[in-house]
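Many introductory courses stop at the sequence. We go one step further.
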Amino acid sequence: MNTIIEARDVVKRYKDYPAVRGVSFSIDKGECFGLLGPNGAGKTTIMRMLCCVSPLTSGTLKISGTDVGIHQREIKAIIGVVPQENNLDPDLTVLQNLIVHARYFDISSRVAQERAESLLEIFQLSEKKQSRINTLSGGMKRRLILARGLINNPTVLVLDEPTTGLDPQARHFIWGRLRQLKSQGITVLISSHYMDEAYRLCDRLIILNNGEVIAEGRPAELVPRYAGREALEIDVSRTGVDGILEKAEAASAFIQRVEDTVYILGNDLEAIRSELREHSDAVLYRPTTLEDVFLRLTGRTLLQEQ
C-alpha cells in the first residue's frame, strides 16, 4: 500500500511546554488510523498540525508527499476536517451550512447544491435541510459536521473525537458511515479516548501519553501483547485480596491498584478467579481491552487522566 501520511520526529512546544514530543507514524492510503489517549495526550495538537492550523516546532509531517509547512493550500484541498467542537453556523439552515462551506474549495453553486443534497440524504438529514442548527439534536449536529467534512470529496478525512457526548445509537450510526467511507478508499484519521471505538474502527493505531507514543500496532495484536487475554477487577473496599496477589504474581500476571480497585491482567486467571468466587459480587471477570493496555503501560486508567 502507498503511504499517504508520514510523521517523523514531530515536536510541538507552546513556550516551554512540550505538547508533542518526537512523534513518528505513517498511514497507508485507505487505512483507518487511530490516535488514542486521554485528554491532553497530544491528539488534537497533532491533528491541528496536520490540518495546517498550527505549525510544527520541529520534525516533518507530510500528506501525499507534500510538507504541511510549505504547501498548505494544496493540503487543505484534499482533506476533510471534523473538529471536536460543534462549530456550525447557527444563523444558517442545515443545507446552507454545507453550501457555504463548499465556497472555501471553489466549488460551483450547482455542484455544491448537488453534493449537499446527496450528503444530507446519506446522513439521514434531508428532512431537516431547512431547519436551523439550534433545533437539531447533538447526534444530528455531529452527523452534519461529518457531512460538511466530506463536501470537498477529500482523500483524507480527519476526525477529532467525533462521537464525544453522543448516545450509543448516534455513535453506532457514525461508526457505520466511517466504515463505508473507508470501503470507498478514503483514508481516515481518528482521535479518540474511547478505546472500544478505536478497537472497532481502526486498522492500526498509536496510543499517546504526555505527548509521546507508548504503543503502536493493530488493536487485536496490542491487547494480548501488553495485557494478556483476561482481566479481573477486584473492589477491595468490599473484599480483601490476602493471598490473591501472591497467586497472581506466581501466574506472571500484571497487578495494579487504582484507588479501591485492583486490576489483574494475564493469560490464565482461572485459578485466581476460583479463589474469589465467594466474593463474586465484588469481582468482575472480563476479556482484556485497549484500556488495559493503557493501564499496563502507564499504571493509570484513562478515567484518571481525563
